[in-house]
């Protein structure tokens, strides 16, 4: 069972994924968001692009399968919330639906190849979705748990896990996609 905080976070994700703002998620929405994130990868990094595209396709497929829908279906917010709670965050699905996107994001953004994200690399991710750099720079500070000036792959993945799975309003991972003010 999800908490009120998780429901608020999942609702935020729904609105973020709803690329055309029509109140429904479709395959097209998932393809558009995958394309936005794929644009962050190096032009010749087909491995990362394919991995992220496949991860978003898996997530969409899981929504359809869990909702009993077909590829042409639309999924509204109530159905999305139910499926997130029952299927997407289930241990047997979470890594393939969400974890692979996290790994792909680090690979796409880590332009110097050191296995972690500098503040500049991290902020670049949010530029594509229109988050001001001053805002994402603040999120970076909260997610850089060891204050090293870099977010390691482990720190990024921990933030992903906390955002989706933790009911605790105080974990740093809650700052992954928005200010905590959004979830109050």
From TrEMBL:
Cite the SMART domains for this sequence: EFh
Q: Which Gene3D superfamilies match?
A: EF-hand (1.10.238.10)
**Is Calcium one of the keywords?**
yes
Calcium: is it a keyword of this entry? yes
Highest taxon of the lineage: Bacteria
Spell out the InterPro entries in the cross-references: Centrin_CML-like (IPR050145), EF-hand-dom_pair (IPR011992), EF_Hand_1_Ca_BS (IPR018247), EF_hand_dom (IPR002048)
Annotated EF-hand domain residues? 5-40, 131-166
Keyword list (alphabetical) reads: Calcium, Repeat
**Name of the protein:** EF-hand domain-containing protein
